């Protein structure tokens, strides 16, 4: 097996020792980070906000006023 251990599954209930011998696995609950987990220095995670993220689309509000 190789790759990231899926989150939100029964696999997360196992401790790190359960995965010993599977050197291709990465991510929690292991301490081995997966490729791509590291951000380049100076790069920050920013929240992206756009009109498309609204809870209700514009057409909904327009239809209420018509």
UniProtKB/TrEMBL annotation:
Residues 31-50 are annotated as: Disordered. It is a single-pass type I membrane protein. This is Leucine-rich repeat-containing protein. It is found in: Membrane. It comes from the Eukaryota. GO terms for cellular component: membrane. Residues 34-48 have a biased composition (Basic and acidic residues). InterPro entries: LRR_dom_sf, RLP23-like. It comes from Artemisia annua. Keywords: Glycoprotein, Membrane, Signal, Transmembrane, Transmembrane helix. The lineage of its organism: Eukaryota, Viridiplantae, Streptophyta, Embryophyta, Tracheophyta.
């Amino acid at each position: 097996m190789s790759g990231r251990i899926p989150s939100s599954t029964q696999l997360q209930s196992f401790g790190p020792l359960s995965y010993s011998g599977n050197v291709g696995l990465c991510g929690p609950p292991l301490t081995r980070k997966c490729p791509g987990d590291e951000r380049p220095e100076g790069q920050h995670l920013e929240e992206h906000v756009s009109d498309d993220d609204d809870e209700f689309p514009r057409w909904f509000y327009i239809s209420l006023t018509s």
